Amino acid sequence: MSDTPSADTDADDSPFGHTHFVDDDCLASPPAGKVVRFRERPDDPETDPLRFDMWLAAEGSHGPMRHVHPEQVERLSVQSGTMGITHEGDRRQLTAGATAVVPAGDVHRFWNAGDDVLHVRGSVTPGLRTEQFMRVTYGLARDGAPVTPSGMPLNALRLAVLLDEFDDMLLLAHLPMWLQLLGIRTTAVLGRAVGYDNRYPEYLPVRRE
């Protein structure tokens, strides 16, 4: 199995080493050891799923921090490797062939719990603007912006402006949702005042006809 495939390599191949273009279907967050390849985009983002493959590196990959999808169901099927996951108050490890379904509103986190690259085939339903959010956060991480070990912007003002725009898809789990939303709204005002924006056209793909 090649570890340096081209953009059109079969999704079962590890994409580490692939050159990631801004408008490519394959995104990388090097600080977090994460790579995502979009498999199927929703015809109607308000109802249809976004499907993707994700790889987490064997070393240095923390996976996403504890978070919540307020309006989306997330499905994660392990293709190879070992995935650690916490959700619904349970912590466990899943191997190839196992699937976890995370209901909307459930606090959860997943990570590479093994010694090899973890390959997960996932979806979020409905897709909403998940791809846009991922393109921006992965793009910032790839281009050297300070980020957390999981790849989220470290600058609180920049992060608040982003979360204020995308709060229907993702919230962090360290505070109650109502309190977090209040903090996001307040901090986002400050973020915009010093020049941060939620528009990053350099990270969004050229529109396909």
Major pleated sheet: 6 strands, antiparallel
Q: Averaging pLDDT over every residue, what do you get?
A: 86
**How far is the N terminus from the C terminus?**
33 Å
Uncertain residue ranges: 1-12
Pattern of helices and strands: EEEEEEEEEEHHEH
CATH homologous superfamily assignment: Jelly Rolls
The radius of gyration computed from the alpha-carbon positions, rounded to a whole number of angstroms, is 16 Å
Shape: globular
Q: What proportion strand?
A: 25-35%
Give the strand line-up of the largest sheet.
1-2-3-10-5-8
For this structure, the CATH topology is Jelly Rolls
Protein name: Cupin type-2 domain-containing protein
Region (Disordered): 1-49
InterPro entries: Cupin_2, QDO-like, RmlC-like_jellyroll, RmlC_Cupin_sf
Organism: Haloarcula pellucida
Considering the chains and any ligands shown, give keywords for the structure.
single chain, 209 residues, alpha+beta, Jelly Rolls, six-stranded antiparallel β-sheet, three-stranded antiparallel β-sheet, 3 helices, 11 strands, 19% helix, globular, disordered N terminus
Gist of the model:
The protein contains 3 helices and 11 strands; from the N terminus they run ββββββββββααβα.
3D architecture notes:
The structure is a single chain. The protein has one domain: Jelly Rolls (Sandwich). The protein starts with 25 loop residues before the first strand and ends in a 16-residue tail after the last helix. With 209 residues, the chain is α+β, with helices and mostly antiparallel strands. The longest helix has 17 residues, at 177-193. The protein has helices spanning 130-142, 156-165, 177-193; strands at residues 26-29, 34-40, 50-56, 67-68, 73-80, 82-87, 90-95, 99-102, 108-112, 118-125, 171-172. The protein is built from 3 helices and 11 strands. The strands form 3 sheets. Strands 1-2-3-10-5-8 form a 6-stranded antiparallel beta sheet, covered by helices on one side. A 3-stranded antiparallel beta sheet has the order 7-6-9, with no helix packed on it. α2 crosses α3.
